[in-house]
Amino acid sequence: MAEINPIVVMGVAGKVVDLPVAQGPATGYSWVLDLPPGVVRVEDAPAKQSDSEKLLGASASGAMRVVAPKGNYRLTARLVRPWEPDNPATTMLIDLVIG
After folding, report:
1. 3-state secondary structure of 82
2. 1 occurs within a structural domain
3. Parent domain of 54
4. Phi, psi of 16 (to 5 degrees)
5. What is the pTM of this model?
6. Which value, in Å, is the radius of gyration of the alpha carbons in the chain?
7. What is residue 53's three-state secondary structure?
8. Per the domain annotation, does 87 fall within a domain?
9. CA distances from 83 to 3, 35, 64, 88, 94 (A)
10. In degrees to the nearest 10, what's the CA dihedral of 82, 43, 5, 13?
């Protein structure tokens, strides 16, 4: 298995942080976040409006969001189908740095 390089996301303690993950169109796959203690998922950002020619395959919603206290956290995002939770199509590591 290839090594996954984490994406670093910065934020402020107690403030909403947008993650570089958004729910896509209805393909059967959805992102599942594995969150460490102290990190809480909140309501997703609103979907971005796009031109009609850009809609095919575009995100169905905005970025996933979290709130956390000051600290460094490792989040795992897995793109899975509900009937295959242990067989992700892709996995993303996110290093969340909250100041």
Report:
1. coil
2. no
3. 7-98
4. -70, 135
5. 0.81
6. 14
7. helix
8. yes
9. 25, 21, 22, 11, 24
10. -150
